[in-house]
Amino acid sequence: MVDTNFYKISKPHTIAEIATATNCEILFPQGNRYNQDTPIVAVKPLTLANDGDISFFSNKKYAKDFDNSRATACIVPSDFTTKTELQLVLLKNKNPYLAYTKLIDLFYNLAKTYPQKIATSAQVSALAIIGKNCYIGHNVVIEDNVTIGDDCIIEAGSFIDFGVRIGNRAKIYSHVTLSYCEIGDDVVILPGARIGQDGFGFATAGGVHHKIFHIGKVIIGNNVEIGANATIDRGSLNDTVIEDLCRIDNLVQIAHNVRIGKGSIIVAQVGIAGSSKIGNYCALGGQVGISGHLTVGDQSQIAAQGGVIQDLPPNSIVGGTPTVPIRDWHKQTIAIKQLIQKRKKNEC
Q1: 301 in the same domain as 183
Q2: What EC number(s) does its UniProt record assign (predicted)?
C-alpha cells in the first residue's frame, strides 16, 4: 500500500476531473449513487478498494475480483462488458494501461525532493560543466571534462568518468558508473547500472588471452530508461548505440557494438552478444539470448528464454531455443508433452 513516508498523495479528485486527466469515457451505474462530482481519494487494487477509491481492471483473470470489488470507480478497456448489474463507475479507455499511468501521476508523487545543490561530500572537478538547477548527492564523483545538462539529478555514490556528456533532465540513481558515453535528454538510469566499460574482447595466442583495447563509446538517445544493474559495454571500434525511447530492464547485458533501435523493450536478464542489431520497436522477453553479429528486424517479438542464432526478418514472432515461429514452438511443446504422456502409459 501507499506509504506516505515515501510518497505524497494529492487532494481528492472528482470523477469528472479523473476522466479528463485520463481521457476516459464515464459510464455510471443505474440510480443516483454517483455523479461527476463524486470525490475519489485513493487508487487501490480491486480486492482492497472501498467506497471513495478507484481501481484498475484489464486482465480477465481478475474478473471475480472486479465483481466483488467495493471500489467507487474502475478504469477498464473500452470494450469491457459485464454480465452482472453494474455497481461502480466505469472509466473506459482503449488503452487502459496508459489511462492508469496518468491516474497514478494525478494522485501520487515522490515525498523526496531534489533541491538545487551539490552535497558537501561530492567530489566535482573544477573542469566539469554543471548545468542549472542540478542536484548532486553525497559521495558523487564527477571527473574532468564532464558536461551535465540542466535540471539533472545524480544520486549518492554515482561515478561520472572523464569526458562523459549528459543531457538535460537526466535522473541517475545511486551507485551508477558512467564511462566513455554520451547520454541524451530525459534519460533515467536506475541504481547500480554500469555503462561504458570495456567489452568482452580478447585475442588468444600461445595459450594467453590478450585484451583488445576498446576505442568506441556508448551513445544513449533521448527518453531512455535503463534498469538496475544493467550493463552496457562500449564499442570496440564502432559505438554501442541505444536509440530514443528504449526501455531496458534490470540485469540486462548489452555487449560491445550492439545497436538497439528506437522504442525497443528489453526485459530482465536478456543477453545480447557483440555487434548484433535489434530493430525499432522490438520486444525481447526475459532471459532471451541473442548471438553475436545478428540482425533482428523491426517490430519483432521474442518470447521469454528464446535463443536467437540466426537473423530474424521484420515482424517476426518467435520462441524456443533455437527460436522458431511462435506457433511452431507451441506445437513442439505440445508434441513433447504428448510423447512424455505416451511413454508413461507404456511404462505402466
Answers
A1: yes
A2: 2.3.1.191
Does 166 map to a domain? Answer: no
Q: Judge whether 293 counts as a catalytic residue.
A: no
Is-contact 201 212, C-beta < 8 A?
A: yes
Q: Are 198 and 182 in contact (CB under 8 A)?
A: no
Catalytic residue among 138, 214, 256, 330: 256
| pLDDT tens digits, 6-30 | 999 999 999 999 999 999 999 999 8
Q: Answer yes or no: is 132 within a domain.
A: no
Domain region containing 61: 7-110
CB 43 within 8 A of CB 25: no
- CATH no. for residue 261? 2.160.10.10
pLDDT tens per residue across span 181-200: 999 999 999 999 999 999 99
Examine residue 31 and state whether it is found in any structural domain, yes or no: yes
In this prediction the pTM is 0.93
Scan for cell 485513493, then name that residue: 42
106-123 pLDDT tens trace? 999 999 999 999 999 999
255 three-state secondary structure: coil
Domain CATH for 102: 3.40.1390.10
- 183 and 323, same domain (yes or no): yes
Write out pLDDT tens, residues 160-170.
999 999 999 99
**What are the tens digits of pLDDT across the range 197-238?**
999 999 999 999 999 999 999 999 999 999 999 999 999 999
Burial class (CB in 10 A: 0-12, 13-18, 19+), 268: middle
Residue whose C-alpha cell reads 528506437 in the numeric block:
262
Structural domain count, the chain: 2
